[in-house]
Amino acid sequence: MNDPVIRLDDLTYTYPDGRRALESINLSIAKGESVAIAGANGAGKSTLLMHLNGIIHGTNGAVKVCGIPVVAANLKTIRARVGVVFQNPDDQLFCPEVFDDVAFGPINMGLPEGEIKKRVGESLAAVGLSGYEKRSSHHLSLGEKKRIALASVLSMQPEVLALDEPSSNLDPAAKWGLIQLLKSLDVTKIVVSHDLELIEALCPRLVIMSKGKILADGETCGIMKNRELLVAGGLAAPG
Ligand SMILES: Nc1ncnc2c1ncn2[C@@H]1O[C@H](COP(=O)(O)OP(=O)(O)OP(=O)(O)O)[C@@H](O)[C@H]1O
């Protein structure tokens, strides 16, 4: 295994109201891996993702990206490397026009205007929404918004792409388009999903979380044969 791109050491997180969402998580992800994270509702998956680019910080333990600690002083560097696409695109899109949402990251990175325009065009093309630049982000369908949210992260050309439920609300054609797009990207991928088809098509490694802990971490094809783990991971109905 290469040096980890993502490393969580004994990570514990308790929300301000006292709810413990993560407990002693240890996880290493190597450059180029595509790793799915599954688990029943409330297992802690979104909380884990939010640690990867420092939206929240562990109560205990450490998170490192390419060996760099995810702490306040390093957030600019970390956020240029790790792009997180939230489950709800309304948490990500806040500009009047699509162009501004997709350009926001590159502008923050201080890129020249020509490069910003190029990246916006390429990112919209990658998600199949060329020509949407002047549309209002808030007057799009949910599936379109999800793809714009992905474009707004792709435009930063991150080394690590962390996606929370990327296929929810996509129609079958859009979902397979997304899978093909994600497969074509030469980045490390961490995908929170309950979608068996997406996980099998995209992620050779599967981590199952339960009640803030890692219950299983292994080859997707092996875990897919273990019904007990699939139920625990919210990937199969009990009974
Ligand atoms: N802002 C918050 N304040 C307090 N508790 C929270 C907060 N956000 C989440 N939690 C709690 O933390 C735990 C983990 O939540 P999280 O959203 O990480 O789960 P999840 O695995 O992503 O769930 P889902 O599949 O439903 O999206 C849950 O018990 C949840 O109720």
TrEMBL record:
One of its GO terms (molecular function) is ATP binding. This is ABC transporter ATP-binding protein. Pfam families: ABC_tran. One of its GO terms (cellular component) is ATP-binding cassette (ABC) transporter complex. Keywords: ATP-binding, Cell membrane, Membrane, Nucleotide-binding, Translocase, Transport. SMART domains: AAA (SM00382). It comes from Dehalogenimonas etheniformans. InterPro entries: AAA+_ATPase, ABC_transporter-like_ATP-bd, ABC_transporter-like_CS, ABC_transpr_CbiO/EcfA_su, ECF_ABC_transporter_ATP-bd, P-loop_NTPase. Belongs to the ABC transporter superfamily. It comes from the Bacteria. Gene3D superfamilies: P-loop containing nucleotide triphosphate hydrolases. It is found in: Cell membrane.
